[in-house]
């Protein structure tokens, strides 16, 4: 089906469409090695898992998170830009918007990774989408970026570090009270010896859960980007319900074309019934 859609595009648009698909995959790859350390740092640092095993294990659960985590995050991504305005604009402008979003996200992600600057791919993508939507609005007016959705996402990005920081302090305090007799737990790990089994089990479990939820959240950003690309290049296919036969759309288009070319009939209303034909005689 996708090849059929590409065949309907002009030659230059088909090439740029493939470029955009590759760019989406590249963004996801950068997002992967950008954020993988979040999940595997603890199990590698404590010698719970070898680096190769940890990365493979994390990758498996990231993939399962993308497949089983739903598409709520992906839908949140695409609602940041004015979809209704995007559908009615020329193809060239839509391509420029999508390429701007993809290239700015990739360049910033690569730059922060190269210089070792802590940065979230989510912040990068959201900023790119809002910037593209704002530029689109400044040219064509219309609805502009979805600032309400952006505020919700911004609030979650602001609250989540504070929540994680506070909860980590609380858990650390509880652990120091409950296992304070085992001071070795709070010491630097032995580089040549793995921790006890129960600690390894906890670390592997946390690595697994972080990887899974990273896939169900950050992994869905690539799905949302792909949907933005498809909407920009093929808005008609996006608006159509492909479960219905094409004959229904052909008949509907034929009727619309017929109505548009028919002369408008002037309807005269007989309003004589609104008042009596004879004057009313009062007693």
**Which structural class do the helices and strands define?**
mainly alpha
Shape summary? elongated
**What is the makeup of the main sheet?**
none
Spans of at least 5 consecutive residues with low confidence: 266-277
Strand content: under 5%
Radius of gyration: 29 Å
Order of helices and strands: HHHHHHHHHHHH
Task: Tell me the count of domains.
Answer: 1
Q: Write down how many β-strands occur, each being a DSSP E stretch of 2 or more residues.
A: 0
- Terminal CA distance reads 82 Å
Estimate the helix proportion, in percent.
over 70%
Tally of helical segments = 12
Task: Report the average pLDDT across residues.
Answer: 78
Can you give a write-up of this model?
- With 283 residues, the chain is mainly alpha-helical.
- The protein has one domain (7-187, 205-237).
- The protein is built from twelve helices and no strands.
- It is elongated.
Which features would summarize this protein structure in a list?
12 helices; 283 residues; mainly alpha
Furnish the topology, listing elements before pairings:
Blueprint: H1 2-7, H2 11-45, H3 51-68, H4 72-78, H5 83-87, H6 91-114, H7 121-140, H8 147-178, H9 197-217, H10 219-233, H11 235-239, H12 246-261
Helix pairs in contact: 2-3, 2-6, 2-9, 2-10, 3-9, 4-10, 6-7, 6-10
Concise summary:
The chain is an all-alpha fold and 283 residues long. The protein has helices at residues 2-7, 11-45, 51-68, 72-78, 83-87, 91-114, 121-140, 147-178, 197-217, 219-233, 235-239, 246-261.
């Amino acid at each position: 089906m996708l090849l059929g859609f590409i065949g309907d595009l002009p030659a230059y648009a088909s090439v740029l469409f493939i470029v955009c698909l590759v760019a989406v995959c590249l963004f996801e790859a950068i997002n992967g090695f950008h954020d993988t350390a979040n999940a595997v740092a603890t199990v590698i640092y404590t010698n719970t898992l070898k680096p190769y095993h940890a990365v493979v294990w994390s990758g498996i659960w990231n993939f399962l998170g993308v497949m089983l985590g739903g598409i709520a995050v992906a839908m949140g991504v695409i609602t940041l830009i004015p979809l209704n305005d995007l559908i009615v604009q020329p193809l060239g402008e839509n391509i420029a918007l999508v390429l701007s979003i993809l290239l700015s996200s990739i360049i910033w992600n690569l730059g922060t990774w190269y210089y070792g600057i802590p940065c979230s791919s989510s912040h990068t993508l959201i900023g790119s989408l809002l910037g593209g939507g704002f530029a689109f609005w400044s040219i064509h007016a219309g609805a502009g970026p979805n600032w309400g959705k952006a505020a919700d996402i911004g609030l979650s990005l602001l609250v989540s570090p504070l929540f994680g920081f506070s909860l980590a302090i609380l858990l650390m305090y509880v652990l120091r009270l409950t296992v304070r007799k085992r001071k070795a737990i709070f010491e630097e790990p032995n580089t040549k010896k793995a921790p006890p089994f129960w600690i390894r089990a906890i670390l592997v479990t946390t690595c697994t859960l972080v990887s899974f939820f990273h896939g169900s959240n950050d992994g869905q950003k690539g799905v949302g980007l792909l949907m933005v690309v498809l909407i920009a290049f093929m808005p008609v296919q996006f608006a159509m319900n492909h479960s219905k036969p094409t004959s229904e759309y052909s008949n509907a288009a034929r009727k619309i074309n017929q109505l548009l070319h028919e002369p408008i009939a002037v309807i005269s209303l007989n309003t004589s019934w609104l008042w009596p034909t004879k004057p009313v005689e009062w007693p």
